[in-house]
Design goal:
- By secondary structure, this protein is an alpha/beta fold.
- Helices cover 39% and strands 16% of the residues.
- It has 16 helices and eleven strands.
- It has helices at 2-25, 53-64, 119-122, 148-166, 178-189, 220-229, 236-240, 245-252, 254-258, 261-264, 270-280, 285-292, 304-307, 332-337, 356-359, 361-375, and strands at residues 30-32, 71-81, 84-93, 102-105, 128-131, 171-176, 194-200, 294-295, 299-300, 316-322, 343-349.
- A nine-stranded mixed sheet has the order 1-2-3-5-4-6-7-10-11, with helices on both faces. A two-stranded antiparallel ribbon has the order 8-9.
- Strand 4 (102-105), helix 3 and strand 5 form a beta-alpha-beta unit.
- It is globular, with a radius of gyration of 21 Å.
């Protein structure tokens, strides 16, 4: 009898999964991956920076092959942004249920596959959506406005149009670093769509303190060089390095690659450097947008924390920080002093840095799952 029931449950799940994918497929704004598409007439091997959208796709696949949870990838066509057609690359993990789905937004210079350490755990009891922000990863490399206010508005509208097309009436929205800044802006404009706002070591919360000093004394030559480089996009050097790019990433951030050893194995962590290289060797329109929001070296021109005083009181907010992060650390009292009336819970993940989702990923996954379960409601609509 048990074998019959197991067979029945397998068929039922297979049918449901196929039905869900069919619902996505019938949406004219959703386009499944075109494996034969090419974004350039010039072969990658003929370019100084040997990359292409196909290379990004392959690098993402190589990483996600280590994730056990099945996923489906597709583009969401949200229409024109700043006069250009915009497609948002999306992956959906797990199966639909009564739990509120989780939407994950990466930080600057990253892509959705950087959450590879989190998908299996987080999608074990809910749908998880992860996107590549336009200007990054596999999403459209649209040219954003050079005006910072318009850039913020454009990204906010992109997230909202994406949500509408997928029919998500209620969602848990998580953003890391720059993604946290953008999801915070979204919650200010569309609080009715937020079940829980999760900021993971968010960038751009406060302005540069008047008494701020670097941890190390900076030589005068470095200051002079910095005054020039500040006018360039943050990762311009990676593209300038050409074919040495993947090696340069591995040399600059061996710590980041080591975070994925549990998933990939010690000998396969170069998959991270390959992915980051191909994500960032494309047209850097997302970097340019980020750069327009900066002042100085990495400080926000219009910090998010003071603006969160306008956050609707109905929004529940969870903030994760790595205990060793170089980002400005905030406590619950800081939000209260800034006039934030929405409920805020701040939690530090021990022995984690800025990449709080990866440093101690098991602790992060456990803490986030626990928080999500507490905030689950039964009125989530998903497709």
């Amino acid at each position: 009898m048990n074998n019959y029931w197991l067979c029945f449950l397998f068929i039922a799940r297979f049918f449901y999964s196929g039905l869900a994918n069919k619902d996505i497929g019938t949406n004219p704004a959703i386009e499944f991956d075109d494996l034969e598409s090419s974004d350039s007439w010039l072969p990658a091997w003929m370019s100084w920076t040997p990359t292409s959208q196909q290379k990004v796709r392959e690098a993402e696949k190589n990483l996600l092959d280590y994730v056990e949870t099945e996923s489906v990838g597709f583009f969401v066509n949200i229409g024109k942004v700043n006069g250009e057609e915009c497609r948002v690359w999306t992956r959906r993990f797990g199966s639909a249920g009564s739990e509120v789905p989780l939407v994950m937004v990466h930080g600057m210079g990253a892509g959705l596959a950087m959450f590879a350490l989190n998908f299996d755990s987080l999608a074990s009891n809910r749908l998880v959506y992860a996107i590549d922000l336009p200007g990054f990863g596999r999403s459209s490399r649209i040219n954003f406005s050079s005006n910072s206010t318009e850039v913020e508005s454009q990204y906010t509208i992109i997230i909202e149009q994406w949500r509408k097309i997928l029919g998500l009436q209620n969602m848990n929205l998580l953003g890391h670093s720059f993604g946290g800044y953008l999801t915070g802006l979204y919650a200010l404009q569309y609080p009715q769509n937020i079940n829980l706002l999760v900021l993971a070591d968010p960038w751009g919360m406060t302005e540069k303190p008047e008494d701020w000093k670097p941890r190390r004394k900076i030589p005068e030559w470095a200051k002079a060089l910095g005054s020039v480089l500040i006018n360039f996009n943050p990762l311009w050097g990676l593209r300038a390095s050409g074919p040495a790019g993947p090696w340069l990433v591995s040399r600059m951030r061996p710590d980041l690659m080591r975070k994925y050893e549990d998933l990939l194995g010690v000998g396969n962590t170069t998959l991270i450097s390959e992915y980051l290289f191909h994500c960032n060797a494309q047209d850097p329109t997302g970097e340019a947008a980020f750069h327009s929001l900066m002042t100085g070296f990495g400080w926000p021109s219009n910090p998010l924390l003071p603006r969160l005083s306008g956050l609707d009181r109905s929004v529940q907010m969870k903030v994760f920080y790595g205990s060793k992060s170089w980002m400005t650390h905030l406590k619950e009292e800081d939000f209260i002093e800034a006039g934030v009336e929405a409920a805020v819970d701040v939690e530090y993940i021990e022995d984690s840095g800025h990449h709080v989702y990866a440093d101690q990923y098991k602790d992060f996954n456990e803490a986030l799952n626990s928080c999500l379960l507490k905030h689950d409601t039964i009125d989530a609509t998903v497709i």
